[in-house]
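Weekly modeling sync, notes
Attendees: AB, CL, MP (scribe)

Item 1: holo prediction request
CL wants a bound-state model with magnesium ion before deciding which constructs to order. AB pointed out that an apo prediction alone won't tell us much about the pocket. Agreed to run with the ligand included and paste results into these notes for async review.

Input as submitted:
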Amino acid sequence: MNGGERADGSRMIKDSLFPLSLFGIFLGVLLLMSGIHVGLVVLMNDLEWSDIIQIIVPMMYWGAVAMGLTLFTRKKIKSTYEEPLHRLAEATKQVAEGDFSVYVPTIHTADRLDYLDVMITDFNKMVEELGSVETLKTDFVSNVSHEMKTPIAIIKNYAELLQTGKCAEEEKLEYARNIEEAAGRLSDLISNILRLNKLENQRIDPEMKKYDLCGQLEECILNFEEMWDEKDLELEVDMEENAFIRADRSLMDMVWNNLISNAVKFTEPGGRVTIQQTASQGHIEVSVSDTGCGMSSESVRRIFDKFYQGDTSHSKEGNGLGLALVKRILILMNGEISVVSKEGEGSTFTVRLPASAPSSGAGRNTGQESEEKTDGR
Ligand SMILES: Nc1ncnc2c1ncn2[C@@H]1O[C@H](COP(=O)(O)OP(=O)(O)O)[C@@H](O)[C@H]1O
Ligand SMILES: [Mg+2]
């Protein structure tokens, strides 16, 4: 609990209908003033001043008192409201001009805040938030530009080489292939950015339908067949005959493809990738494990950030958006993802999704009765 906040999070704000200290000051001042008035009258009587003077002097006296009070109140209003509001107006102007480093100090200490202080504190908080959003935006723009630069430079170089006309037929083919590959990377990057943007702004309306997750996993695994063979990876699949979930199938395709492609990408030839599906207490879990390079704890913390790529030796493939997309999709599907990884030993990504009961007749078996299917190669 800090000074100005109660345990329940609400702030202690000075808000008294009858401030005793103010009452004390007013009473003291009025008593003193009327005391002086009485003293003046007695003095003038003793001195036997003329009636007219005896009327004018008290009037002048009260005039001076009224002037004093006016000046005092004016000064008080100025220091309590006008100056802080002026500082706030200046700060707002700075923020409007794009400077998010401003900070307006509160007038009172944390234990004596008034509503103006609260407004100032909230203003400071708002500026801080705006500042971080702005930083994220600038980071995003510079990341995108950086990711686009490399393929564009490749396309430009090879196109220039092709134009010289001095290259052999074989070289021409190779250059064209390189151009195609770079264009492919650009197009992947842009589609991933668009997808992520749609997912983040909730502009995607997921088509939630019940389907068999095991069938989907099998299809995805088959799509990687060529890559397993190319890298000579051992594949182990361990799952039930079927497991039903309610989710958007095409978005979930993206999840499995990203996790499997990472496992393949970050595992050295001869390694092993294991895909395991289990069901328990209303949830379905799918884990994708590999015996690849693994990650440091610092990497594990950041892999779901946009554009983060931990292993720079692989960074020419992919753009660090895969896991950011996976995470976003799983949020939409009410799922979760967790990672366990050890550098040099491998990683396990585990996705957990709410299970959907199989419709009558559709499920051959579920839960404990399930038959396990292992496909070890
Ligand atoms: N199976 C894995 N093994 C080791 N590192 C991984 C694995 N999956 C992801 N990573 C790390 O997480 C980073 C982000 O992954 P991702 O978002 O898919 O981007 P990309 O695949 O484009 O690099 C990768 O660059 C890598 O450092
Ligand atoms: Mg990836």
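Recorded for review: The chain has nine helices and eight strands.
Action items: CL to compare against the apo run; MP to circulate these notes.
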